[in-house]
Amino acid sequence: MKIVMLGAPGAGKGTQAAKLSLQYAIPQISTGKIFRDHIKNQTTLGKNIEEFINKGLFVPDELTLDVVLNRIRKEDCLNGYILDGFPRNIQQAIALKENQGEMDFVLNISVQDELIIDRMKYRRFCPSCGRNYHMLHLPPKKENICDYCGHELTIRKDDKEETVKRRLLVYHEQTQPLIEYYQKQNLLFTIDGTQKVQDVFDHLLALIGE
Ligand code: AP5
Ligand code: MG
User: Which of 19, 119, 124, 156 is catalytic?
Assistant: First the structure.
């Protein structure tokens, strides 16, 4: 099963992709997480992309495609995968189709911009395992500590309000056209992302089926 998660920054792609990954036992491939790990480890790629990410701009396509297509070729992707944050523009979607054929589901999580700015203010993330929390709606059991790996939670550098606003602009300009692109291919399912996390998830399960 090949799934693409589509949606604005902060729409809940990562939150839902993590739950789907457990449910269907297929890997969640988050380009944002892969990039943040490279930055944390200060690899050559990490050094090259740090500025783009911190400014809320896209990483150049050739670097992104290289990372994603190599990841998809790994053995754990044989039964499928969930792409969380890729493709993000038409060129990436075309490259994905050329390389992997048609996707099974494109799940578009829809949330209006004002709510997103508010969500990002309260997001905390685990730099070790990449899990996301929301201080009000999805808090960790122990204050500021990841439920899964015990690491201290932190705030993403690109979650500053002005950077979130730039990410939203980039999303509307470059990613939103993918909604029509996938609609035309009859692959798009739009879900109201303003519902509770579990309600969004139940809707996704109902759409995908067993
Ligand atoms: P990436 O990490 O993918 O960031 P993003 O798309 O901006 O999305 P986010 O991860 O911020 O949000 P999300 O939709 O996953 O929401 P989440 O579940 O965390 O990318 C980061 C950067 O990497 C990009 O800006 C770009 O520079 C680069 N990049 C990545 N992919 C690229 C590509 N393909 N091409 C080029 N560059 C690329 O939820 C958000 C918050 O809300 C959390 O606090 C969560 O707990 C909470 N929440 C979630 N659902 C709900 C709900 N239903 N109700 C209440 N709260 C909720
Ligand atoms: Mg995410």
Answer: 156
Tell me which residues have their CB closer than 6 angstroms to ligand 1: 7, 9-15, 31-32, 35, 52-53, 56-59, 64, 85-86, 88, 92, 119, 123, 132-134, 137-138, 158, 167, 193, 195-197, 200
- Span 55-76, average pLDDT: 97
Closest ligand (CA of 116): 1
Global pTM reads 0.94
Is residue 15 within 8 A of residue 21, CB to CB? The reply is no
Cα–Cα distances (Å) from 203 to 1, 23, 63, 103, 197, in that order, read 17, 13, 34, 19, 10
Q: Is 71 a catalytic residue?
A: no
Q: What angle do CA 110, 113, 114 make, to 5 degrees?
A: 125
Residue 129 has pLDDT above 80, yes or no: yes
Amino acid 130: pLDDT: 87
Give yes or no for a contact between 89 and 174, defined as CB atoms under 8 angstroms apart.
yes
Report pLDDT for 210: 66
Which of these is catalytic: 19, 33, 36, 88?
Answer: 88
Answer whether 53's CB lies under 8 Å from 38's CB: no
Chain segment 114-123, per-residue pLDDT in tens: 999 988 999 9
CB 41 within 8 A of CB 59: no
